[in-house]
Design goal:
The protein is 45% helix and 10% strand. The chain has 165 residues and is α+β, with helices and mostly antiparallel strands.
């Protein structure tokens, strides 16, 4: 999904969201009215990140139609810092979770942005510049620091590489 969906746009496409999640065609994404206010993610990702341990039992999965009806109110509650994540899916099976952007940051263990800074927690950019004092990796030096067994393995790999050439 590209671009930020509004709450009402998302409410109208919950079946499509689940289809894309099921097909592996999309990952967690933010949505909101004008800025990222909430995040939609798969229940598997929620579980993998320890969601139940961090947020407690969230109850059964609500049906997409019920979520569509409740979503605007849920997002409005998150805007003032209230409300829990909502698990949803078909036939009571948890397939996806919707939560506030702050809750998603907490789930991932990310820092909250400074007040007034608009940030999409599903989009990350990391500094990739070398740190002061960094230097290129010397494989022989690294193998030596790991011990004789690692040095032997490295030599075996080099022999195999020469023989294969």
């Amino acid at each position: 999904m590209s671009g930020l969906l509004g709450v009402d746009e998302l409410r109208a496409d919950l079946a499509g969201v689940l289809a894309r999640f099921r097909g592996g065609r999309t990952r967690a994404f933010s949505f909101g009215d004008g800025e990222p206010e909430a995040v939609m993610l798969t229940y598997d990702e929620f579980e993998d990140l320890g969601g139940e341990a961090k947020f407690g039992a969230l109850g059964g999965a609500v049906e997409p139609g019920e979520l569509a009806t409740r979503l605007r109110g849920v997002v409005e509650a998150w805007r003032v810092g209230r409300g829990a994540p909502v698990v949803w899916g078909y036939d009571g099976k948890p397939e996806a979770v919707v939560m506030s952007t702050a809750q998603y940051r907490d789930l991932r263990g990310d820092d909250q942005p400074p007040a007034g800074v608009v940030d999409d927690p599903t989009v990350r950019a990391y500094a990739s510049e070398p740190l002061p004092g960094s230097r290129p990796l010397d494989l022989d030096e690294w193998a030596a620091s790991m011990g004789p067994e690692t040095q032997e393995i490295l030599e075996e790999l080099r022999r195999e590489d020469r023989e294969g050439s």
